[in-house]
Amino acid sequence: MFSMKTLSGTDKQIAELIAQEQKRQVGTIDLIASENYPSRAVREAMGSIFGAKYSEGRPFRRYYAGMEFVDTLETLVENRVRKAFGIDETWAVNVQPYSGSPANYAVERGLLQPGDKILSMDLSHGGHLTHGSPVSLSGIDFKIAHYMVDKTTYRLNYEEIAKLARKEKPRMIITGYSAYPRVIDFEQFASIAKEVGAYLMADIAHIAGLIVGKAHPSPFPHADVVTTTTHKTLRGPRGAVIICREELRKQIFMKVFPGLQGGPHNETIAALGVALKEAMSPAFGRYARQIVKNAQALAKALQNYGFEVLSGGTDNHLLLIDVSKRGIAGKEAQELLEAAGIVLNRNAIPFDERPVFNPSGLRMGTPAVTTRGMKEKEMKQIANWIDLVLGEPARAAQVKKEVATFCRKFPLP
Ligand SMILES: Cc1ncc(COP(=O)(O)O)c(C=O)c1O
């Protein structure tokens, strides 16, 4: 448990809420594909005194005094990003974005003019809000055309995407998703983008840790710009990174600061540095591969219980199942499983006929349970509980007790 000695003495209310949240996390199984538990070392850096420092500007070109250690820190972390992704100085790195959404918007506004066209994956097929959803500024500022997954395989169909790109002539193509369980062929995307004269942006928020751990192919050198969050499979603090070809640096980085942001969160940058050092270790490579093995084991076990796993399985950290075939809606399934201590989210599935608020699918991911040390055997157990609870909802309370006992064997970092 993280010590809260000082906090408990000064603010019992907040200390109590943190303690309750910690208890919830310890006693439940987290299958939310975008979540993970950073190490203690990462959390220590997150709570460090770097948070007290303002540092608007770029390293060694600041608007504030007192920069000697912040400049060294930010430069070190930028270089660790290059090392982790195996790229050189021809790639410009910015570790200042507060999170994935502003990072994506900075890139879009940096490379495009309002009214320009983006070609991206439809939200209900696995894309992200910031890839041009009508409720996101990205969908308000730009014209959007969407590609979808194939109706029979539920996979990307590169020929169809190429056809659409020729027809739509976008200025930017976005790849990288929130709910796509298969390998992305960045090289094919790059060749499509090149043919139509579009920038290729790869948003690797979900799979960054798999890429660094060599459990998924890299978007380098194929994409023109890569964005990522740092808190999902990469297991760092909440934040984001933009990496672009050196020649695009100015127009993109100006949109981060002063375009969208003020002072960088230096404590987050410090914690990202720690996470990157961890991610470059052999143990992290094993972790990344285990995430995938666990997702595949979970998919297989669920299939054995008769669940439909979309696209037939997974190559990465997540999977989608269609629960509507079992006569249950996504929202109800999510709530029942939460009552049993299994935390995941309902999700639209491609070509979903149900409303977004109560769709047909569930999304499950294995980064967090793998951090706790769970393996294939535990995935089978989890699938068994999912089947029990969705088949017989009255069992939720009993399963919740079993889950709490089971979780004791797998402590949080
Ligand atoms: C693919 C993708 N990009 C961007 C984001 C946005 O990140 P944030 O929630 O940090 O703004 C997410 C978040 O889940 C995501 O899945």
Strand order of the largest sheet: 4-10-9-8-7-5-6
Ligand catalogue? pyridoxal-5'-phosphate
* Top-tier CATH class of the largest domain: Alpha Beta
Which structural category do the helix and sheet elements fall into? alpha/beta
Total DSSP helices: 16
Portion in strands: 5-15%
Q: For the record, what is the CATH homologous superfamily label of the largest domain?
A: Type I PLP-dependent aspartate aminotransferase-like (Major domain)
Helix content: 40-55%
Which geometry do the CA atoms define?
Answer: globular
Briefly note the CATH topology name of the largest domain.
Aspartate Aminotransferase, domain 2
List unreliable stretches of 5+ residues: none
N-C termini distance: 9 Å
The pLDDT mean sits at 97
Features of the shown structure:
413 residues, alpha/beta, Aspartate Aminotransferase, domain 2, Aspartate Aminotransferase, domain 1, seven-stranded mixed sheet, four-stranded antiparallel sheet, 16 helices, 15 strands, globular, binds pyridoxal-5'-phosphate
Topology:
Layout: H1 5-10, H2 12-27, E1 29-30, H3 40-46, E2 57-58, E3 61-62, H4 68-85, E4 91-94, H5 100-111, E5 117-121, H6 137-141, E6 143-147, H7 158-168, E7 172-175, H8 186-196, E8 199-203, H9 208-212, E9 225-229, E10 240-245, H10 249-260, H11 266-279, H12 282-304, E11 308-309, E12 318-322, H13 330-339, E13 342-343, E14 345-347, E15 361-365, H14 367-371, H15 376-391, H16 396-407
Parallel strand pairs: 1-13, 5-6, 5-7, 7-8, 8-9
Antiparallel strand pairs: 2-3, 4-10, 9-10, 11-12, 12-15, 14-15
Helix pairs in contact: 3-11, 4-11, 5-10, 7-8, 12-15
Bound molecules: pyridoxal-5'-phosphate.
The site of pyridoxal-5'-phosphate has 14 residues, from helix 5.
